[in-house]
């Protein structure tokens, strides 16, 4: 038995091989690191809890919460290690500030004020976003209608159109198609029953007319009655579609459309007045930035392109009005641009005022010159 035991040299050789292979063994766990208790417990109970406990300033504490909430989906081991090191660095800084380090306390106070300003900015951004979101989603009655059909009554045209209206029309369209298919199928079954009745009568002969068969006599009515009931329900639904199409307009809806058209005209009038004062809206600027079609733009000279861009402006005075008239465009007030030099009956008064202004300018110029010369 002693001959079967390995020698001392062999055992030593095995130990050397094991020593070389040991560093090559897999040490990485087979589960993600964020599921390991060795990672979760120190991160949540030591780092996160310690940061919240030692961060005495409320804004800094909120910032810690936000950063941990944003980083909770990190799956990269490198990024997680970097973030944990940064977190422990902050924890040491918070502890130093609580221990009385004036320099760190001043830094944290300044950081707290910065976070307070950022927080106020975010609050205002959120408020402004809510205001503009409510404006964008506000229902606007255009003053026109969605024409009535088999699937809807007369409806006001609203922008943006409510989703349930489109869903209702789509659902009714599919239901009508399904009912028409059911109606054809029921009529086909009824025709089959009638043909079956005729076939059975022809098969049994005239001497059996008084008897009850499988399909003729009273049996035919019993076979057809469920189909007739279903057909009646289907026809009633189809008739409701026609009634919906023929329903008269309601006076309330017509009055709402008239009011919407009046508001639309008033809004367009105010828009034109603002443009006349030089206050351009987003739609006006977008219209001014548009160019002619590509096939026309390719044939235009640089001078024509310049005049076209000037003519896109809403102004009807001065050089813009002259360009529009040159291009053959119509003006709402054709004689308005002629009044820039003054009315004919006011020319004498304007010339006197111009002479007074020129004389005053010359006097001030002479007085300034006399003060400069020694």
Descriptive notes:
- This protein has a two-stranded antiparallel ribbon.
- The protein is flat, with a radius of gyration of 44 Å.
- The protein has helices spanning 8-21, 37-54, 58-70, 77-99, 102-136, 163-204, 218-246, 251-276, 282-289, 294-297, 302-311, 318-326, 347-372, and strands spanning 140-146, 155-159.
- The N and C termini lie far apart (131 Å).
- Helix 4 (77-99) crosses helix 5.
- With 374 residues, it is mainly alpha-helical.
- Helices cover 69% and strands 3% of the residues.
Q: What does the secondary structure layout of this molecule look like, with pairings?
A:
Blueprint: H1 8-21, H2 37-54, H3 58-70, H4 77-99, H5 102-136, E1 140-146, E2 155-159, H6 163-204, H7 218-246, H8 251-276, H9 282-289, H10 294-297, H11 302-311, H12 318-326, H13 347-372
| Helix/strand/pairing category | mainly alpha
Query: Share of helix among residues?
Result: 55-70%
Order of H and E elements: HHHHHEEHHHHHHHH
State which percent range the strand residues make up: under 5%
Largest sheet data: 2 strands, antiparallel
- What oligomerization state is this entry in? single chain
Tally the helices: 13
Mean pLDDT: 85
- Tell me the distance between the termini: 131 Å
The radius of gyration computed from the alpha-carbon positions, rounded to a whole number of angstroms, is 44 Å
Can you tell me the residue ranges where pLDDT is under 50 for at least 5 consecutive residues?
none
Shape: flat
Per DSSP E runs of 2 or more residues, the count of β-strands stands at 2
Largest beta sheet: strand ordering: 1-2
